[in-house]
Amino acid sequence: MHENTETETELNSPTRPEKTTEKLDAFCHILPRDYADRLFALDGVPAVANLRKRIMNIPSLVDLDVRFRQLDEFPGYRQIINLAAPPVEDFGAPAVSTDFARRGNDGLAELVGKHPDRFAGFCAAVALNDVDSAVAELDRCVNELGAVGVQIYTHVQDHPLDEDRFEPFWKRCAELDLLIQVHPCRNSTWADYPTEERSKYEIWWTFGWEYDLSAFMARIVFSGVLERYPNLKFLIHHGGSMVPHFSGRVGPGWDQLGSRTPAHQQEDVTGYPLTKRPVDYFKMFYADTALFGAAHALRCAVEFFGPERVLFGSDSPYDPEKGPGYIRSAIANVEELDLTEDERAAIYGGNTRRLLGSRLS
Questions:
Q1: CB-CB contact of 120 with 360 (8 Å)
Q2: Which of 126, 153, 328, 355 can pair with 134 through a Cys bridge, CB separation 3.0 to 4.6 Å?
Q3: 47/261 Cα distance (integer angstroms)
């Protein structure tokens, strides 16, 4: 009896490969060593000074030994990596930004090539302060380096991404059929009130980043980007941000767009001619599970987008443990949801595999 119990325990152990559900982390961050060294050598760049303060005590962003020891806790787990914030556009003129993107992408590709057991792929960085160069770099990363997608930010040097100049980028992303990770990027200079000069209490991060993501989604919807390119695969960080939690305003609320707007402000509510309700476009986005342990928030995201449009993502290594904490809490949150085993497996890795296919290593 004792021997049978031991055998049963061994067979059901989560460390056995045949019993381990594949987990592909579709949104986590890293700094390749050469890229990090060059980045921290930049002087007089406020974004870099801010980054240095925020990440210098997170060894696993750069130190692979630390990172891999942390990942050993999670059987069947691999990461799709991208460059940690801030955006390359913040580092200087377009030529400087483009050079940093290129060097960063080379570093990401090298990491995936050397450690396919840890990294399933990477999402490229592009410098959208020069759209032509960004498209060229995107092509290089996909066709030469094997990128599975691209990471962009919610604005480019304070400019919204529904400006006409970005149309060639959306067109090329649609042609390449890429995953587009969307990350927020406002900072403390975005004040909480018009009468102030700086945001207080890191409200710019806690709430501001979620507003950024949600405003980005709205501008993509109403400018018709998804109408023109319905196959675009936008992965919205932090569980689709505010949208699932305000679905009544996004749905019946925005169905009334313009009906209460004064005639002299009609230009503010006139966008690209849409063929569906606004909420139907919002449901075309994908969301990750990076909600920092808030299972109720993840439940809301899954109910809004559907389990087929939620991808496992952790935002590692920005948790209080500096690496494994948000991975562990994301897994716990997925396990807590009332899902079928097929739905749970889809969120953990199946949806990402379906979207990325043979591009994954």
A1: yes
A2: 126
A3: 38
